[in-house]
Amino acid sequence: MPTCDVVIPNDVFAAARDTIGAFFEPISRIDRDTAARDFLDVSKSLKRAEILERYATLRGSKVLEIGSGFGTNVAAWILEFGIDGYGVEPSSQGFDGGYAASRRLLAANGVDPERITSAVGEHLPFPDQSFDIVYSANVLEHTNEPERVLAEAVRVLRPGGTLHMEIPNHLSYFEGHYLLLQPPLVNRRILPAWVSLLGRDSTFSKTLQTQINPIWCRRVLRKIDATHPLEIVSFGEDIFLERLSRPFQFEAEGVSSRLRTLIRGLQFVNRWNWIGALIVAARGYYPMYVTVRRRPSR
């Protein structure tokens, strides 16, 4: 895997620690410094690029990231792959601090900070058919109107372009914000009740769009297909099966500390990946990598 030396200024790390790190500290029970290191870890940007490049060519592409956070993906992909990269991040909505800090991070790495725009996924400030690739990671479940975000992402995608989103699957066994095992969420009241039963504050869980799962995604994409023809490429089942069949590499230090023993136990008894096949059949794989390609208009 390539390496990329993205400079993380001290004030950007402090901003991540004091905003998103502090916000999630009581939710995930991961200390804010560890959370900030995980969030700003540029090696995750390169791993995400490796997955994305299964479906599209990054080098030389015009790329939009919806929910660009603190700018690590945009900076790393510009520097490593030479993309014409842009990001949108709201400047005052929930996880404030990312917009300003991402612009400082880009400037510190010699990238024009104007490539990050203050906007939300429901209202992308770009013309139709502007991008070769639209990307997002762990954002859709935090939006107010996830269906509209998907529709907007497809609107700004060029024919032949690729939309690739990493999204929690709420039919799965794992809740990635609280770092808890969970039952499948077939109703939006389940997660708050489950979190409360385990003695945790359920306030944040009520804000999550827990209707998002493979069934929901397929239904929404079919609706979008009526106006913008799409090809559904993958929901990430293949990646889940691959990961479960070989030594597991965790992206985040906090997640690794919680799930390492469980995953090793599963892999010990998972001969011929039969457990993975059952989980996929039940649509419980985690996360989803929703990948679609925009077709030319009918």
Description:
Strands 3-2-1-4-5-9-8 form a seven-stranded mixed beta sheet, with helices on both faces. It has a two-stranded antiparallel ribbon with strand order 6-7. The N and C termini lie far apart (40 Å). It has 298 residues and is of the alpha/beta class. Helix 3 (42-52) packs across helix 4. It is built from eleven helices and nine strands. It is globular and about 45 Å long.
Count of all domains: 1
Tell me the overall shape.
globular
Going by helix content, strand content and strand pairing, the class is alpha/beta
What strand order characterises the main sheet?
3-2-1-4-5-9-8
Number of DSSP E strands:
9
Give the helix tally.
11
Assign a percent range to the helix content.
Answer: 40-55%
CATH architecture: 3-Layer(aba) Sandwich
From the alpha carbons, calculate the radius of gyration and give it in angstroms: 19 Å
Topology order in helix (H) and strand (E) letters: HHHEHEHEEHEEEHHEHHHE
Write down the CATH class.
Alpha Beta
Q: What is the makeup of the main sheet?
A: 7 strands, mixed
Beta-strand proportion: 15-25%
Q: Name the CATH superfamily assignment.
A: Vaccinia Virus protein VP39
Poorly predicted regions: none
- The end-to-end span amounts to 40 Å
Mean pLDDT level = 91
**CATH topology term:** Rossmann fold
